[in-house]
TrEMBL record:
GO terms for cellular component: plasma membrane. InterPro entries: Pra-immunoreactive, RDD. PANTHER family: PROLINE-RICH ANTIGEN HOMOLOG-RELATED. The keyword Cell membrane applies. Its main location: membrane. It is a multi-pass membrane protein. Signal peptide: none annotated. The chain crosses the membrane at residues 12-37, 49-69, 104-123. Residues 9-135 form the RDD domain. It comes from Mycobacterium adipatum. This is RDD domain-containing protein. It is found in: Cell membrane. The keyword Transcription regulation does not apply.
Length: 144
């Protein structure tokens, strides 16, 4: 077994904390987008300015898009999100290499649509989430 593949697989607590940190990060990005929308409306129509109202469907779609884009980009480029860096984690393939962008996209969609799949880490002998089992990914500690 090569060195990256021998790394310790992360458990439910560190992965859960990382997921919460990532959720907060996505929330901050969404808040920044909303403030940007407010500023654009203020610049374009200063005399008749009012705060924009955003519907539930639109907000949900934008949050889904931002979360999937964020996770996909982070996992395919470095394997680490903000939460993963904070907790010392990295998403890898079965053999310790970075996951391909297509697999990162599918994993991101699966994680956003089915976050409960993370709970499987607590009962799996190899500490794999449902997404890890289906897509052949692993979440390991960066420092052994």
């Amino acid at each position: 077994m090569n060195a990256p593949a021998a790394r310790r697989v992360a458990g439910i607590v560190s992965r859960g904390v990382a997921a919460v940190i990532d959720l907060v990060f996505v929330g901050v990005v969404l808040a920044g987008l909303y403030v940007g929308l407010i500023l654009v409306r203020l610049m374009l129509h200063p005399s008749s300015f009012s705060f924009p109202t955003v519907g539930v469907v639109f907000s949900t779609a934008v949050m889904f898009g931002v979360a999937v884009l964020y996770l996909t980009a982070c996992w395919s480029v470095s394997g680490c999100t903000v939460g993963a860096v904070t907790m010392g984690l990295r998403v890898t393939g079965r053999h310790g290499a970075r996951i391909a962008p297509a697999r990162a996209l599918i994993r991101a969609v699966a994680c956003v649509l089915f976050p409960v799949g993370l709970l499987w880490v607590a009962v799996d002998a190899h500490r794999r989430s449902v997404q890890d089992i289906v897509l052949g990914s692993r979440v390991v500690y960066v420092k052994p």
